[in-house]
Write a structure and sequence with these properties.
With 366 residues, this protein is α/β, with parallel strands linked by helices. Helix content is 17%, strand content 44%.
Amino acid sequence: MRKIPTLQSLFQRKTLRKRLRNRSVFRKLLGIETLESRALLAGDTIQINSLSDLAAHYTAGTNSYSIGDDSTSSVTIAEGIVIDTSSVVGQAGSITIQGDVISIGNNVQITANGPLDPATGVELDGPITLLSENVLKGYNNSAVMQIEDIVRAFQGQKSTITVGTSTVIEGGAITISTDSGNELVGDFIASQVHLASKVFLEAFEKPKPDLFALPITAQVWEPVSEITIGEKTSIQSSSEVSLSATATANAFGKAVWNTLNEKTGKSPFGFALGEFVNIAKATIDVSSDATISAEGDIEINTKVDNVAELEVATIENLGITQTNPKSVSFAYGSTEVISKSTILLDVGSQVVSSGGNVTIEAEATD
């Protein structure tokens, strides 16, 4: 029998959902978190070790569980825990587990089974979602991306879901998804700011540098998305099953020597150095004797999008302004792009659809 949440547990659940909701102005403007906020978020972990822990995430009105949200750094479900929204009458409830890192122990049962609707012949099973999203949304601007990359180094760039051995996940539509990396959401804004800066500089007879570029730039993006299904684990759906792991790395920027203090470009020296490293990995590993079955379609997909664009420039003597013939300029740029998109189906694992298609696809674009 499922334990009914107490008033105290419901209050604790409400308090948990309100935790760490404040975001700094810096994050709102740049789409990133400050190091201070990330340190706080690191403490937003959820551990389900007992039925009382689980009850804090239960909603009686909808017979559903919602464990974690987009601010949760990790969710751990202890061995042997039963998460059940099954119903003998009417629609079964939904189960959602969300966090940057999700770890489900051995012999766990996650079930949302419902009865067969006599009118439609459809099983009224509830949806089950395991979602891990660790994606930074920022702007395509060299200086801004430099800051984002530094912040990201402290945040971590992994998105993982691990399901232990002999675990059962059974219900309606089942979605297990990981997504990591950085997504550019401000391309248009960045381009307009860049254009305006060039017009401004030309109006004051300055050379034509990139106002928002630095002479030295370095970015390292290492997103990792992983899904691991343990040995002898069973994933069974009366509808569809989707396993997807996505890793995205975007490195865009410039290293430009700006001579804003020299009206006629008489600077005696100039240098620009740029180094970009993108290593993006997306992996799904279905261990031996694990079973994934559905009455509808089954999709197992890994995807890597990996792009690096670096421009390095120093002082140019174009013959249209006064320059220093004895000036020394040096520019160096290097990019490294590594993409790995992998699906492993170990010996004895099974992927079976009784009434739909099975799609297994690993793709990478760089």
